[in-house]
Design goal:
The complex is a heterotetramer, with 2 copies of chain A (about 150 residues) and 2 copies of chain B (about 80 residues).
Chain A: E1 2-6, H1 12-21, E2 32-39, E3 43-44, E4 47-56, H2 60-76, E5 80-86, E6 88-90, E7 95-103, H3 106-123, E8 126-132, E9 137-139
Parallel strand pairs in A: 1-5
Antiparallel strand pairs in A: 2-7, 3-4, 4-6, 4-8, 5-7, 8-9
Helix pairs in contact in A: 2-3
Chain B: E1 2-7, H1 10-15, E2 19-22, H2 23-28, H3 34-42, E3 52-55, E4 58-60, E5 71-75
Parallel strand pairs in B: 1-5
Antiparallel strand pairs in B: 1-2, 3-4, 3-5
The chains are: A alpha+beta (about 150), B alpha+beta (about 80).
């Protein structure tokens, strides 16, 4: 299990490759890997968004993400899990969040990955402020529905 | 010892920067719950129903008791991911 | 949309990296990517499995996977989708299947990825034959439940 | 022209290799459905309820009509992924 709060851009496939290479003692045990990646789009609610700032609550954010993963590990028998989340200034097409889980079977992988994401979206202390093209900064007020 | 109060995101725009409430003030003003902290800091501003509160980085509700040394945070609904 | 039937081992993270780099005209449009990877374990139903052979029905397999992705594209507004499936001789820890979808929002990504996998598992013409350590080859009779 | 019959995986172990049924045999034996094809090839072997059938690479059921030039495939439940 690993939680990363990253203030610089990350390459999700490379992060996954590196993480899985360090899991080689688990080779042959996991049959399923589910991954979700959230990426910054260049529009939101009808406006062009040129940049975004992601604020978090240092300490509480890490602690909350750890708790989410610990709970999912018990509930879904996760073999491994990884969460990476960007903070700071973000440009369109930058990855914002990566959630990955490794399990024996696919049912657990699908369900755990989605549940971790939904918990993160609804409870992990992050806040987005958008820079609208030709407009003022605005705090994002709500997330899109996950179910 | 004092109580540390933090505001995040749009809550900071509304309430200003983080602040410490001195032990003497806590005693004098009889500040014992999260709601008391808000009322002391807010200068009459109403707290919206969707404002989240954490004490020492755990989510709590307004009736939660606070003590000196605690970190109390108020913030709007989260929008990460 | 791309369907690949692969008779040699593939690196899922590299495949994803390459595929996404070729999608650069879609930068800023997709906000969600969901990925599932199925990997060969070294045990099944209590036995050690040293090797596996994956047979398919050339022509029908590709056609069926294309139909699954076309249907999911319409139902979930997929921006892009990719399915890679191994055939032939497979060793433990080899990736067997990769399903990836790109969408505007996460709900569609999670649901489409899982539905494509479930359809693939229940209808795409592939058959596994396991080589049991110290035993005979055996055809796998059924899959684990996905829901 | 003939009908091409294919067997996959454990179905090949049971039924043998792929085979063609000549047009003359199709006519003589009055082979018109998927079930007829099975009966012609199976030499009395029963077809399990879970056997899947495809004609020209589309799933069909046993009553489906076949014609010369068709490819008819019988196979066990799939186990990919």
């Amino acid at each position: 299990m690993k939680i990363v709060i990253d203030s610089t851009s990350f390459d999700p496939w490379r992060v996954l490759d590196d993480y899985q290479k360090n899991m080689s003692d688990l080779d042959g045990q996991y049959g399923a890997t589910a991954v979700f990646i959230g990426t910054m789009r260049d529009f939101n609610e009808g406006d062009d968004v040129s940049e975004m700032f992601l604020e978090h609550y240092p300490g509480m954010t890490e602690r909350h993400l750890e708790n989410i993963c610990l709970q999912a590990t018990g509930e879904y028998q996760l073999i491994e899990s990884l969460v990476v989340h960007r903070v700071g200034a973000i440009k369109p097409n930058d990855p914002i969040v990566l959630v990955a889980v490794w399990t024996a079977h696919r049912k657990q992988a699908f369900e755990a990955c989605r549940e971790i994401m939904e918990d993160l979206k609804s409870k992990a202390p992050f806040w987005k402020k958008e820079q609208i093209a030709g407009g003022e900064d605005r705090w994002v007020e709500k997330n899109t529905k996950g179910y | 010892m004092s109580i540390h109060v933090k505001f995040f995101a749009s809550m900071r725009d509304l309430m200003g920067d983080d602040r410490d409430i001195d032990a003497a003030v806590v005693e004098q003003q009889e500040i014992s719950t999260v709601d008391d902290i808000w009322n002391y800091c807010a200068e009459g501003k109403k707290r919206s129903d969707n404002v989240l509160v954490a004490v020492n980085m755990d989510y709590v509700d307004g009736q939660t008791l606070v003590k000196e040394g605690d970190e109390v945070a108020f913030f709007p609904p989260v929008t990460g991911g």
